[in-house]
Amino acid sequence: FPLVYSSDQLRRLDEAANKLSIPARVAIKFDTGMGRLGFGVDDAAKVVETLAGLSGVEPVLVASHLATADDPAEREYVLDQAARFDQAASVLRQAYPGLAGSLANSAGLLGYPELRHEGQRPGIAMYGANPFYGTSLERLGRDLQPAMDVTAPILQVHGLAQGESVSYGRIFAASRDMRVAVVAAGYADAYSRHLSSTDGLGAQMLVKGERAPVIGRVCMQMTAIDVTHIPGVEPGERAFLLGGEGDNAVRPEELAQWWGTIPYEVFCLLGQNPKSPI
User: Whose CA is closest to 107, among 255, 234, 264, 224?
Assistant: First the structure.
């Protein structure tokens, strides 16, 4: 059912529902502190008044969204949002008893059990990423298991002699004789150019259960990795840009850290250019 955040939306839905003779079941969104979409909490009575004049609209849920639930230092603001939500929901429930509520996102569900209502909205936790990664509450999400892998094939494996460079700009030069694998993934596949490395101490992929550092600049559709320490790597094998099996799996939180972003962006962008052979 649609999430409604304005009186104009309600009226348009009512008009469409009456034309089709099908009631429009909706969720009413309140802005309790996100500053994004939603009715104002103080407008709850007006929302009830508007709904009373619309025969085709049936509210089934009242919802809001937490702005800072993943930040332990913002607990007071989270609880303030929860109080505002309860205030708005109480007004609507006077007219619509039993109206379900929905407030908690992934961090809210893990960090604030008291904010769980009838409707839960886990987002990033469903991908197995910890919304509290790197904070004092990290322990609350440690049992989450990553649910997304992104892989690409290795195109070629070749030697790189000491002093030789790899990729554009020659930003990486081998400090020793190395073996390099060229992986068929780059920034055109949303494997960000920010993952480029001058020293092999940043981003890593997973090959044959072992970590393989990215070396040199990430190209449009190719990235070089150091596989010197991994025996038997051959063209056609898969490199895990994200995920993989075992303790060495590339976690979304660390990929985001190398990337200089957040896991949400990793999940949204990475692998959005899949290749299907014909």
Answer: 264
Q: Are 45 and 94 in contact (CB under 8 A)?
A: no
For the whole model, what pTM was predicted? Answer: 0.87
pLDDT tens digits, 50-95: 999 999 999 999 999 999 999 999 999 999 999 999 999 999 999 9
Quick check: 256 and 266 in contact, CB under 8 A? yes
CB 227 within 8 A of CB 176: no
The correct answer on CATH 3.40.50.150 for the domain covering 3-141 is no
Mean pLDDT of the chain: 96
Q: 79: how many CB neighbours lie within 10 A of its CB?
A: 13
150-269 carries CATH number 2.40.37.10: yes
User: In which residue ranges of the chain is CATH 2.40.37.10 found?
Assistant: 150-269
What would you report as the CA-atom Rg of the chain, rounded to the nearest whole angstrom? 25
